[in-house]
Design a protein that fits this description.
The chain is of the alpha+beta class and about 500 residues long. Helix content is about 30%, strand content about 20%.
Amino acid sequence: MTHVHDWTVPSPFWESESLHRIDFFRPALFEYRSDDFMDIFMEAAADHSPTLLQAARLQPPLPVNGTLPPVRLFQPAHGCFYLAAASLCCRLPGFPSRTVRTLEGESALFVVRKLSGGEEYAWVVTDNQRTWQPVGGSGRTLVNGEERRPAFPVLTSDGRSLYAGYLPASNSETYNVPAGQLVVDGKPLDLPIEELKSRFTEQLPGLVELPVTPVNIALNTSVYLLLDLWEYFDVYLPDVAVALRDDLNATFSGPKAAERLDLMSTLKTQIVSGTLTLAAALQKAACNQDRLNAPGGGSLDQIGFTNGYNLANSFAVQSGAQTLVNKVKAALADEKPGLTLPGNLDPSSDVCYILRFIYERPQCDPTRVIVSLPSQPFVFAPFFDPDAPARPVRITLPNDVSIAGLRKFKKGVSFIMSDAMRKKMKRLVGREDTFLDDQQLNQEDDDSLAFVCSFSIQIIFIVAFMLLLMFVVIFNLIFWWLPFFRICLPVPKSLFPE
C-alpha cells in the first residue's frame, strides 16, 4: 500500500488550526530572545499545553494598506534566535506521524528560498559557483545542488514527533570572486600588490608630514613600516623573507628564482641612510620582530634603531617605491588570490524569503521528495534596525595603546567605497579625502572602480569611544542628556584577571 505523506503545522497546534485552512499545511516559525532558546523550545514542545509553544510562534504582522507585510527576523547580535518546525504525517485519518528512517537513507531538512518578482529562487552551491537559481513551477521541487539545512526530531507530549531546524538570520556565507574576474577597464587587479602599496609604499609620503617629537614618532613609525614590509614578504614571498632575516646573499631556486634574486638586489641597493640599505634595515626589523611586537614595543635605542632608520629622510626609498612595487610584482606567483565578498542573505526590506520543509525517500525508485507548502514570508532585519531588541553589551577597551600594540590589531573591518561615497569624501576639508588613496579616489569620472578598505576594529573603537565622550559633553549644552547617559559602577580591581 502506498502512503501519501505531507508536512503540516506542528501537531501541538492542530486543535487550534482548521484542517480546511491552507495554513494547516504550512511550517511554523518561532522566535526566542535567549541564548538558551533550544532548551526552551524542547521544554515547550514536550509540555502538555501548547501555550508556551504558541507564545513563541511568530504571528503575521497587521495589514498595511490592505497588504500583509512579511515578518521581520532580527539578528543573533540583537539577542534573537529563530526555529522553524513542522510535522511529517501520513495522509490517513488521524494524520499518524511518519518517522524518518535515517538508517535507510531518509532525511528531513528544510531550504530557504528568495522571492523575487513573484518567483522562487533556490540558493545553489556547487564546486564552481554559489548563486540563486529560479525554482520554477509551484516550488514544490528540490533543485539540484540546493543548500539544505538540517532538521531534527522533537518528541511532543502526545507521543508524536515534529521536526525543527535553526533558521539563521545572518550567516558568514560569502562569494569567493576569482582573480580573473577582478578586472577594471580591461586591467586585472593584483590584490597582493594593492596590499603592498597600502602597507608600505603609499605610507612613505605621509612620513614627511609627521611631527618629530622627543619620542621621535617618525622613526618609530618607520621601524614598524619596515617590520610590516618584512611580514608582507613572510606571507607572499616566504623564501625572500627568510633570506632577508638570515642571509642577504642567499640564492633561490624553483619558479621565479631570477625575479626573487632581482628583488633582493633592489633591496640591497636602495639606501636608507649612509651605508644602511633597505635590505639591512629589513633584516634588523626581522631579527627583532619579537621585541618590536612585545607590549609597548620596547626601547628603539636599546634595540639599536638610530635615526638612520628614519624613512622620512630617505630620498632613495621614497623615490624608489614604484621600482620596489614592480620588482615584487615580478617575483610573485602567477596564480593570484581571489577576493571574498559578502554572501547570500540580504538584510533589506525589499528582499523577501520563505522556507519549505523537505522529506526525502531515496529507497524509492525514483527517489520521492515531499516538499511542504511555503512558510509565511519573512525578511532579515539589518544590523542597525531601530526596532531591533538591544542585547546587553560589555566592551573592554584595549590595554596596549602604543604603536607596537596598535599595529598588531588585525584589519578585519571592511568598508566598500562606492563612487557616490568617494565623491562625498572629496568635500571634506584638508587631506581627509586623500587618506584612503591619494590618486584613485579623486578620479570622479571613473565609474568602473570601487574600493574595499580594511581597518582595525580596535583602533576604530578607540577613536569612536573618544569622540563619543567629546560630543556627548558638547551636545549636552543643547540636550541636557548627561544625567541619563551613563551608569558607572565601581568594581574591585581584584575581580579582574591580571
